[in-house]
Each structure stands twice: as structure tokens, then as C-alpha cells.
Amino acid sequence: MPALPSFPIDDLPAMWLRDNCPCPDCRDPRSGQKLFQISSLPAGLRPGTVTGPVIGAVNGPVAGPSSDGEPSVEVVWYPDGHRSVYPLSWLAANRPGGVDRGDRRTEDGKELWTAADLAGRLPRASWPAYLDEPGVRARMLESVLRLGFMLLHDVPGSEGQVLAVAESFGHVRETNYGRLFDVRVEPAANNLAFTSARITPHTDNPYRDPVPTIQLLHCLVNEAAGGESGLVDGFAAASLLRATDPAAFGTLTRTPVPFVFRDAGTELRADRPLIDTDPLGRIREVRFNNRSIGTLRLPAAELDAFYAAYRTFAELLLRPELRLDLRLSPGDCLVFDNTRLLHARTAFAQDGSRHLQGCYADLDGLASRLTVLRRADSLEPLAALFAGAGAAEYLGEPVSMAEHMCQAGARAEAAGAPPHLVAAALLHDVGHFNESADSGDAGESDRSGDTAEGAGGAGATGTVSGHALMAGTDNRHSHTGADLLGRWFGPRVTEPVRLHVAAKRYLCAVDPGYHERLSEASKHTLRVQGGVMTAREAAEFAALPGAADAVAVRRWDEEAKEPGAVTPPFEHFLPLLTGLLRG
Predict the structure, then answer these.
(1) Which CATH number is 178's domain given?
(2) What is the domain extent for residue 551?
(3) String of DSSP letters for 533-571
(4) pLDDT tens digits, residue range 199-225?
């Protein structure tokens, strides 16, 4: 039997380690909630004896780090003699000092985008597939958290159906507009949304505290000329403002703005900044609605600074390249993050019928439903991919796709890479498979001519979409692969995958010998994927948070093409992957 891997714990903070003890004396076996107060732990706490790695026994509830049959470390604590057993996979996934997983509501948990970034990969699915296939539903809900929206097609056209969409992932948030509201021309409208006028990018209900965090719009009829919908990533726009005008960004994060709504039966007000940040300075919320801003009462100099910054941000939000335009058809339901995305509408002719129904829900309910879906999920679709479609040739290289990816994972492991990078190296090319990892989701064709969003996965009998790449069409496999992997893993795994193609272009620009070391097939795909980066592109890439990890994955990618190499199978990596799964 091979020796178990070692895992030192002497550098782990004792109080942190003990606070995460999973034993039934420390956590309720049913709920996983802690049974002790931090103040009740003994002073001078430190590990007394450490044993392992060993094959652990069951030591904790589902909510904690269970050691059922896993390689584990046993700690007997001084001075109270308490015994704790920690699985190695849990220790590796949660080691202090790693990338902060933190609050996924902030920009660090998002993929910021402009319209061009979403070409060919809109997060869309049919309503029947969303309902019937847990993997499809998980991928769509993940898109709301990561990209800020999803688009469901073929939702029944009956009135009130938007409530069923909301209830598929959470609870309807009732407001003064009721459980649902109609977006159509009203004779005595109390809101410009209920007219045919053009509506510029905005967030809804900024005068509420808390604001509804998810908005749904279900198209019942759209026969009017005009009335196209638009989305703008407010986090991307705020990030751009921070980079180009940090003083304006600072002003908008510090200045409380009075948002007000009133009619005969309602008086609402919330005083919040246009751009809200968390204690670490990360963008967490955008509230922007020119129709609802009340009168600011500040010193004249502060008003001047605010209005200059406000105008700059407003002009930035109107840039055409930031706006994704959509024409909703009957049966389409758009679900989006109302604290991040701004939505807009072009004017439309009143002689044509246009009727949408909307409602509000909340992100915490959606995130909860996604987590529950993931608990019941398994890595079997990925295992089936490696065993089935992975046997296909690897784009002109002398190894199969599965051999290539397993070699990359093994090289990362041999280099002592952290678990998330081993996983990224192993899984970096899953986007080359053109069928969904959920057999029931063949993807939804983009009605504007884009390719299928569902094309980022692979089934056990999937085929390799990389043939299009070899024929001269960029299949954007890095993005579709990262989107698929988001079903199971967080950004530490998905972002190096998303950036590994860009990393090749980057290395060709900054490493004089790198291009010549590429295989002929890799040189061909480089040309299809955009060629060598310019100096400006290279500098922008290097500044990205995940650039270093993507470069590491890229180098293992290029090395992993050795025919006949003895390579561990996919199953070898399962314990590591399991430790990285989102809970």
C-alpha cells in the first residue's frame, strides 16, 4: 500500500484549528452548528500530540470536515486532552493564507464583462431542461452569481408564470408593486417603466433598504417596434471608473445618496452610495437610478465633487461596448442580479403590443438552492468524460485528450502545486467537448447567431469541438470549460482554466523562446485564438489576479504531450477534486 501524503500542521493557528474541530462534542451531529463558545476554549491551547496521516474514522457532521475513510490527521490537544481528526482534503482546501474565498457578493466572486466578452457564451437554457436536469439548473444559477444573469427560453406564456420561475430557486419578494408587476403602457403610470419611453441603464428599487437583489422579467408579448432590452455590468463599469478616475470612484463610494419614491400610498427612502464597497474596498453593490435620486444637502464643494463624479460614471455606463443588447421574445425570462447589473430599454411604438411581467427575489435564496443542488451532485460526469470522449485525439498531438489532461495534472502535482492548481491543470481542456456534462442539455442556440451556451461540457459519449479550432474557428474552449467547471468548483479552479489560452498568447509575447517550443498544432491554434499579445495586452493580462496561476497551468499544458508516458488516471485525482468541491 503506498504511503499516505504528509500534511504539516505546525504552522496552522491553534485557535483556528480547534475552532474547526468536527467532532460530535464540538458540533451538533444534525445541524453541524457549534456547541461551544470561543471563550470556553482553554487558555494556552496548542496541539499536544499529532498522529498521521491515518485513514480516519467518522468524526463529524455533514456540515463539518468529515474524515469518513479519508486520509486524516489526528490531534490531541493540550491542556484539555480533546481529540480532533481532520481530513487532509479539508486541510488542503482550507489552509490559511490561500486565495480569499470571502464574500462572493463582491467583485472578487464575479466574472466582470463587457458585451464582447459574452459573444457565443450567453448563460441560457430552455425552461424544460432547467427544470428536469439538476446540472443545467446548477449551471444557470451559478451564472446569476458569477455573470449576474441567466436567460431562460420556452417559459410558458401564461400570466403569473414568472412567480414559478422565482420559486424554482427561492422566494418571491413582495413590494408595494405586489408579488408581481406588469411592464406595459399604463394610462396613469406612477413610474416611467410603465410608459413607452426610453429607459437608460439603472437598478430597480434603490429607495429600499434592503434592496431586492434579484429581478425577473418574463416576456409575454413583444410585437412593438423598439423595446429592446439591455444589460450593463455595473461592477465592470465601477472597476473601470476606479482604474481611470480613482478620485471619482472614491467620491461615489463615500457619498450617501438619498433615493426616494413616493406616490399616493407609498413613501420610501434609502440613503446609500452609488457604489458600495466592503471593508476590504471590494465593489459589492451598485445603486444607480437617476429617476429616483432626491435632493442632496451637502456643502457646496462636496456637491461639486459628487456631481462631477456622478456625471463621469453616468457617461461611462452609456458606453455602447459595455451594453449587452437583447430582444426578449415571448417565453423568454431574464433573471438578473439587481445589485450588480443595470438594465435598460429602448423606446417603443405604442401602437404595438409589449407586455412583460416581473417580480423580485433574493440572492441568498438562489445561493442556497445552488448549494443544495451541489450537495447532491457528483463528479461522475467528469469521470465519464475522461473515460469516454476523452479517448479522442488531442488536436493533432500524439496523445489523447484524457492523456493530455492527466499528464498536465500529474506535472502540476509533481511540481508541488496547491490542490486548486492541480485541479485546473487536470481540467483545463474540458471546454473542447461539445456536449453538456448533463446528458439532457444539448444547449440552447443563440438567437442572435452565437453558438450554444451548453457547448462547454461533455458527456460520456461526447465529441471534441476542438476540430473547429483546428479548422480555423476559435471555440473559446477556455471560457466554456470554466463555465462548465463552475458547476463544481470556485474561481480558484475555474479562473486559471478561463485564462490559460490568454496565458499562451502572453508567454509568446514576454518569453522570447516560448513560441519556438510550441508544437506545430499549438502554433496553429495560437493564430486562431488571436496571436501573440501586444505589449499593452500583455501588461493588462499580467495585472489580472489569476494571471500567475494561468501561466503555471499553461506551462504544464505545453509539457503534457508525451506519448506513452506513465500517467495516473482520472480516479487518482478524485480525492483532491472532492476536497475542492463547493459546499
Answers:
(1) 3.60.130.10
(2) 378-580
(3) PPHHHHHHHHTSTTHHHHHHHHHHHHH---TT-----GG
(4) 899 999 999 999 999 999 999 999 888
